[in-house]
Amino acid sequence: MEITESQIKSIVGAVMAKMQLGEDTGNMHGIFSDMNEAIEQAKRAQKQVRVLSMDQREKIISIIRRKIKENAETLARMGVEETGMGNVGDKILKHMLVAEKTPGTEDIRTEAWSGDRGLTLVEMGPFGVIGAITPCTNPSETVLCNTMGMLAGGNTVVFNPHPQAIRTSMFAINLLNEASLEAGGPDNIAVTVQQPTLKTSEIMMKHKDIPLIVATGGPGVVTAVLSSGKRGIGAGAGNPPALVDETADIAKAAADIVNGCTFDNNLPCIAEKEVVAVDSICDELMRDMVQEQGCYLASKEVQDKLVHTVMDEKGRLNRKCVGRSAKALLAMVGIEVPDNIRCITFEGPKEHPLIATELMMPILGVVRAKNFEDAVEQAVWLEHGNRHSAHIHSKNVDRITYYAREMDTAILVKNGPSYAALGFGGEGFPTFTIASRTGEGLTSAATFTKRRRCTMSDSLCIR
Question: What is the DSSP pairing of strand 441-442 with strand 434-435?
Fold first, then answer.
């Protein structure tokens, strides 16, 4: 029987209300009141996980995939309801992407050498219990994607989710443990605490049984992880520029850029945050963005109002604006627009605060460049050395190559929307932990393993 829209809203409302009151969390799997207890339970579970065969791990992951699909709309609605960020339709797509394309045990491989002096194996083994810090921008997506990869590698995971998204994160963690139990695996493959704080995060990062910490968030949390004395995988900030030169298909570039920028109201860290366009096609590009792609052309007065609304005098973002729609942002400054307006655009210098700052909102400033070389120079400046993501629209292979080398980012999308990098309209696998700062790039199951060499001297080579 199909579940109706009103039934889904009723389910989400009931779940959120119960979790708001603290009901049922005691019956949820993987939820604890004390961080030390959570870590201890994850440690016990890991002793069982590490001896599971790959087939057994894959069985759990297969059930996780099914449960994500079954709960995609509920998870999406919970995320929007709790955080106020993003939109339900795009969050459903993100959950389906996680379910269908996140790598599992196939990402765990063994290398072997054999020769006159015997046989050597290099195997990918678990770290053990991994500590993970997750954001409010993708609360359930990050939890689900991370756990699938970590479990495939033989690990369990302790989450310290963002407090603004704890109910959504707890729902996802419970789902993961239900999948493990259904497959005959252990409980507590993923755990968290009812009230995550800076203190619980500190306990997790300093705990002797946590050898690896994975942080997905802003520069502050990544810096804290890298200062912990533990091995850290850090997915930090980005400010991805999209460069458009005169050889590009301008109409397609406009559509791709706006589609990427507005996906889930610009919450993905890989999303286009600003455009750098060469002078000869800049007007045409902006015209297409406004006339064909639902962009609102902001006057200087509206730009100034937006600056004072979306950030404070120190340049810190107003959290009430992050992940909101273009229509909602414009309403905050007294501008009413129709529903088809999905992005705010304007032309300005690269130093403009709405251009130079990673906003995570569908505000897309356009910087005019004298020529391609000037465009690259401005794009490099705008990316701020995060080495995270960048995009280019060009039909000149030499220029694309030059841009890629100059940007030196973990992700580079050529002639497509930013989300193509995550396997959505492009080849490859998704991840919601893009470790640009620590160099791992797009993380997967293999990222959460350590290489161990096992050598048999003068034996087991039979050729």
Answer: antiparallel
Read off the CATH number of the domain in which 397 is found: 3.40.309.10
Domain check: are 209 and 247 in the same one? no
Q: Are residues 282 and 423 located together in one domain of the fold?
A: yes
Within a domain: 459: no
In a domain, 436, yes or no: no
What residue type is assigned to position 422 of the chain?
A: L
Q: Band the pLDDT of 5: cuts 50, 70, 90.
A: low
Distance, CA of 395 to CA of 380 (rounded, Å) = 20
Q: What's the total number of domains in the chain? A: 2
**Residue 97 domain boundaries:** 5-236+442-453
Secondary structure (3-state) at 448: helix
Strand ordering across the sheet containing 129-134: 31-32, 190-193, 156-161, 129-134, 212-216, 231-235
Alpha helices in 3-138 (DSSP H): 5-20, 35-49, 54-83, 88-101
The secondary structure of 319-365 as a DSSP string is: TTTTT--HHHHHHHTT----TT--EEEEE--TT-HHHHS---SSEEE
What span, in angstroms and rounded, lies between the C-alpha atoms of 317 and 49? 41
pLDDT digits (tens, 9 = 90+) for 451-463: 999 999 988 888 8
Q: Which residues contact 4 (CB under 8 A, 6 or more apart)?
A: none
Q: In what order do the strands lie in the sheet with 343-347?
A: 295-297, 343-347, 363-369, 274-278, 241-244, 389-393, 411-414
Specify whether 313 is located in the same domain as 214: no
Does one domain contain both 216 and 267? no
Say how far apart CA 46 and CA 436 lie, in whole Å. Answer: 28
The per-residue pLDDT of the chain, averaged, comes to: 94
Whether 301 is covered by a domain: the verdict is yes
> CB–CB of 435/441 below 8 Å?
yes
Which of 41-45, 228-232, 326-330 shows the lowest mean pLDDT across its residues? 228-232
Residues 303-338 pLDDT 10s? 999 999 999 988 899 999 999 999 999 999 999 999
Tokens of 194: 């009812």
For the CA atoms of 329, 171, 88, 220, what is the dihedral angle to 10 degrees? 40
